[in-house]
Amino acid sequence: MLRITKLGEEVLRKVAVEVKPEEINDEFRALCLEMFETMDEANGVGLAAPQVDISKRFFVVTADDDVRRVFVNPQIISTSSDLVDYEEGCLSIPKIYENIKRPSKVTVQALDENGKKFLLEADGLLARVIQHEYDHLDGIVFIDKGDPEFAKETEATMKKRAARYAEKQKAKEAKERKIAAIKAAKAAKGK
C-alpha cells in the first residue's frame, strides 16, 4: 500500500511533469498496480500520481464500468458544453464532499501503461473521474472548483487534522522510545 498525500502537502499543488517514454517499463507498471491496490483499499475510483507523492503526469481509474485504466500524459481534447452537478470527494481530502459542476462528457488522449496511445470518449462518472484526476496533475483539487468559502474552511480543517496527526505521532514515538529504554534497561540487568 502506498501512502496517500493529504491536502496541505506541497506535491498536491505542483504541476506534475510528463512521464518520459523510457520510464514506461515493468517498474512503472508495478507502480500502477500498487496505485490500483491503494485506491481500491481506500474505496476510491481514481488516484493520481501526486496523490502518492509522485509529481508525474499519470493517474489510474476504475469507474462505473469496472475497467481498470491507466492514463499517462493525458490531454483533454474536448468537453461537452452541458455541465452536471455532482457531489465529489477525494482520497487526499478525506470525509469532505462538495457539489461540483463539470462537463458531462470528455474526450481524452493518453498513453496506457504499455506506452500505447489511445483516445477515449467518456460520459457519466467516468468523465467526472477523469476530469478530477486530470486536475490533480495541474495542482488543482476539487474544492478549487466550488465555493471559495468552503475551500477556505476545508484548508483550515485539513491543517487542524494534520496538526492533530503530528501530535499523535510525536506521542506514539515518545511511548515507543520509553518502551525501548525499559527493555534495554531490563536486558542490561539480566546480563
Can you offer a commentary on this structure?
The protein is 38% helix and 28% strand. The protein has 191 residues and is α+β, with helices and mostly antiparallel strands. It folds into 2 domains: 10-146, Peptide deformylase (Peptide Deformylase, Alpha-Beta Complex), CATH 3.90.45; 147-191. The chain is globular. The model has no long low-confidence stretch (mean pLDDT 95).
Index terms:
five-stranded antiparallel sheet, 191 residues, two-stranded antiparallel sheet, 28% strand, alpha+beta, Peptide Deformylase, 3 helices
Write the layout of secondary structure elements.
Layout: H1 26-41, E1 46-48, E2 58-62, E3 68-79, E4 83-90, E5 93-103, E6 105-111, E7 117-123, H2 124-137, H3 148-190
Antiparallel strand pairs: 1-2, 2-3, 3-6, 4-5, 6-7
Largest sheet: 5 strands, antiparallel
Number of strands: 7
Question: What does the average pLDDT come to?
Answer: 95
Distance between the termini: 41 Å
SSE string: HEEEEEEEHH
Share in helix: 25-40%
Order of neighbouring strands in the sheet with most strands: 1-2-3-6-7
**What is the CA-atom radius of gyration, in angstroms?**
20 Å
In the CATH scheme, the class of the largest domain would be Alpha Beta
CATH topology of the largest domain: Peptide Deformylase
Apparent shape: globular
Low-confidence stretches: none
> CATH homologous superfamily of the largest domain, by name?
Peptide deformylase
**Level-2 CATH architecture of the largest domain:** Alpha-Beta Complex
Structural class: alpha+beta
> What is the strand content?
25-35%
List the domain count as a whole number: 2
